[in-house]
Amino acid sequence: MALKTAMALAAGMLLAGCAARYTPTPIPANFAATKQAKLQAAQHWGVIADNIEKQLAAELRKSPPRPVYLNEPKDPNPFQRALAAQLTTSLVNDGYVVSRSPAGSLRVELDVQTLTFAADRPQYRYYGEKTALAGGVLALSVIDAGVAFNAATGVGAVDAHQWLNSQFAPGETPKTEIIVTVSVSDQYRYLARATSAYYVADTDRVLYGIVDPKPEEPKITRTFQVRGDI
């Protein structure tokens, strides 16, 4: 009897651990681990401008050369203004003729979409931190984008741990992100297009045109309801 009960319990536990074959809605699942750069300095804006220019240039070389005209956004925020200037510099330095008027030129257009997600989103940077082994040796075990990296040395393990952490931006996952799209087109078609996404430090939101509402000030007066004759 006891054996049958144990077998029944084991079978129940096994069935409970199996995923259902049919569900009313898809089961939420995480994407495979990736990295997304966090913009924290004006120099970073220059880096992404150079990267965008290289992507556009690779496509523009497939067509006959023509001057390009950068159509800057109206009332640009500091990021848009800097990105337009740095993209112009990258194009000129790469040998492109950047026209000051749109006539007869390909049009380069910038689009920056700002997004605000929920705060305190979790992040799982790697599976393991540094671990003390016998004899004071430290082991560092990390899995990054499917590649296993193991280091087991004395002082070197601490250096490896610090180096590995330096690739990650400090702090929590920002709630602010931007999507930058740059397109090159004529009046009929798109000739080149590049889109990329970046984190933005939440304390720098105003540089990207995001103006948060001011918090309500506490009321300094109170209203009392009085009943009866005075």
From TrEMBL:
* Lineage top rank: taxon: Bacteria
Q: Where is the signal peptide?
A: 1-19
Q: What is the protein name given in its UniProt record?
A: Lipoprotein
Q: Which UniProt keywords apply?
A: Signal
Against PROSITE patterns, the record matches this protein to: PROKAR_LIPOPROTEIN
